[in-house]
Amino acid sequence: MTPRDVVFPAGRQALYEKNRYSPAIRSNGFLFVSGQVGSRPDGSPEPDLEAQVRLAFQNLDAILSAAGCTFDDVIDATVFIVDPESKFETIWKVVSEHWGGPPHPTLTGIGVTWLYGFQLEIKVIAKLPEGRAGA
Predict the structure, then answer these.
(1) Which PANTHER family match (predicted)?
(2) What gap in Å lies between CA 37 and CA 14, rounded to an integer?
């Protein structure tokens, strides 16, 4: 088995180790990013919904940056939302600040009942820039 080529953003490795997962793994020219939430440095949820969504994207951007990517390299996104009927408009207003212009990545949106105290989680797959393809 080939060792996983894990990407850690600066300053959050202890949080990932505590929760026993990798923030992202490079493989065959792609970056597979674990679901990111609007967590503070200690892992607790940001209580304000708009601030939580912004923080989720900041956490995502930190991982993408650590791998030499930006959101423009994202080709597929999955968004999980607790109670999307009541929160979608607020969340999507903030998402549009980070999503960028067309062409947009593919998107799957999933309504869920629980996200460990968070209201949104986003996981993505990005195409790695040439020379950073990983194992």
Answers:
(1) 2-IMINOBUTANOATE/2-IMINOPROPANOATE DEAMINASE RIDA, RUTC FAMILY PROTEIN YJGH
(2) 16
